Amino acid sequence: MSRGDKSAYTDKQKRKAEHIEDSEREKGRSKEDAERIAWATVNKQDGGGKKSGSGRKSS
């Protein structure tokens, strides 16, 4: 079962997580572990479900 709201993620991020999860399942991981790894990977690569920056501009 999914832990947390995934509505902030883009469709592309959701597809990426699904693909990673499928790949992990093929390696023999449990559904829970595969899902956890998939979302952790998406978060690491894309910075999570953020839709915008912090609001601060760099000079």
UniProtKB/TrEMBL annotation:
Region (Disordered): 1-59
Domain of life: Bacteria
Basic and acidic residues bias locations: 1-36
Name the UniProt record assigns to this protein: Uncharacterized protein
Record organism: Luteimonas granuli
